[in-house]
Specification:
The complex is a heterodimer of chains A (about 110) and B (about 120).
Chain A lengths: L3 E4 L2 E5 L4 E7 L3 E9 L6 E6 L5 E4 L2 E5 L5 E6 L8 E9 L5 E3 L3 E6 L1
Parallel strand pairs in A: 2-11
Antiparallel strand pairs in A: 1-3, 3-8, 4-5, 4-9, 6-7, 7-8, 9-10, 9-11
Chain B lengths: L3 E4 L2 E4 L5 E7 L4 E9 L5 E8 L5 E2 L8 E7 L2 E6 L8 E9 L6 E3 L3 E5 L1
Parallel strand pairs in B: 2-11
Antiparallel strand pairs in B: 1-3, 3-8, 4-5, 4-9, 5-6, 7-8, 9-10, 9-11
The chains are: A mainly beta (about 110), B mainly beta (about 120).
Chain lengths: ~110, ~120
């Protein structure tokens, strides 16, 4: 079945450093979504990318959707302690409309 | 914004009992709701897709007789864990999709189930 792989699993950075997490799907996606889950919390929607090659920015966060609509990335510039949490990509399959979540990347930021 | 509530937030029960978890969309009508299970430090695993007025669609490996899902209205879906066992202990999260606003899913706060 469809799989969504996400790397790295964990990332520890010093505050102010950049951070990137990568997401790869085994199948073409109709869209990809990114969520953030704080420790003890539930996933919160960040953004959705739909178009091939799309790039969207939210302040220090930059999201990209690959040309083939099978991979995506989230880049955070100059991390802050408030960025701590687990970032999940979730692929929306063209066939089923279901969200398949990647394993998540847990970000720790040292002040 | 869209809000999804979940009740209870935490439940501890004895092995063999059944537990019902409610998921409500508070300010929108959810034609589709999803139930996920999340083990500590792991990803969300989709258990089933629930459509209002019809039977839920279960993912491979999820026992439909053990995890009963009812989506009786456009704002309420329930998950009942029947004859719960310690291995059913997990974080159960529901999400809802507003049919009119695209594919974004709005997540409930989750229910932490502990089976003794």
């Amino acid at each position: 079945g469809q799989q969504v792989m996400q790397i790295p699993q964990y990332q520890h950075v010093q505050e102010g450093e950049d951070f990137t997490t990568y997401c790869n799907s085994s199948t073409t996606l109709s869209n990809i979504q990114w969520y953030k889950q704080r420790p003890g919390g539930h996933p919160v929607f960040l953004i959705q990318l739909v178009k091939s090659g799309e790039v969207k920015k939210q302040k220090r966060l930059t999201f990209q959707f690959g040309e083939a609509k099978k991979n995506s990335s989230l880049h955070i510039t100059a991390t802050q302690t408030t960025d701590v949490g687990t970032y999940f990509c979730a692929g929306n399959s063209s066939n089923t409309g279901k969200l398949i979540f990647g394993q998540g990347t847990t970000l720790q930021v040292k002040p | 914004g869209a809000v999804v509530s979940q009740h209870p937030s935490r439940v501890i029960c004895k092995s063999g009992t059944s537990v019902k978890i409610e998921c409500r969309s508070l300010d929108f009508q959810a034609t589709t709701m999803f139930w996920y299970r999340q083990f500590p430090k792991q990803s969300l695993m989709l258990m089933a897709t629930s459509n209002e007025g019809s039977k839920a669609t279960y993912e491979q490996g999820v026992e439909k007789d053990k995890f009963l899902i009812n989506h009786a209205s456009l704002t309420l879906s329930t998950l009942t864990v029947t004859s719960a066992h310690p291995e059913d202990s997990s974080f159960y999260i529901c999400s809802a999709r507003d049919g009119g606003s695209g594919d974004e899913q709005f997540f409930g706060p989750g229910t932490r189930l502990t089976v003794l």
